[in-house]
Amino acid sequence: MAELRPTIFADGVVEAQVAHGVARVTLAVTGSDGKAQPCATLCVPVTQLPAMVNGMGNLLKQIEDKVRAQVAQQATNAAAAATGAAPAAESAPPSGAFRFDS
User: Fold this and answer.
1) Residue-level pLDDT, tens digit, the chain, 102 residues
2) Within 10 A of 27 (CB to CB), how many other CB atoms are there?
3) How far apart are CA 91 and CA 7, in angstroms?
């Protein structure tokens, strides 16, 4: 049987606090009025917080590297098209979704 896990969308943080060795981060979504509205609380033991933050930082770096590579490929293809040369490599259009290493 497939494991059921809740999915939470958040585009901000309303508040963060630490009590009794647990970091509690109140996540938020932007409402139709443009204001942040709490949607969930992420609770992480303070001892695990550095590993979690480092993991998120590594994810951000991988995203930046992927975007830079796509921009460079598009620039190369545009330059080749402008000069009438064949593109360096034909590839499928970016899907906007990709998997990262943890």
Assistant:
1) 678 899 999 999 999 999 999 999 999 999 999 999 999 999 999 999 999 999 999 999 999 999 999 888 888 888 888 887 665 555 555 566 666 665
2) 19
3) 32
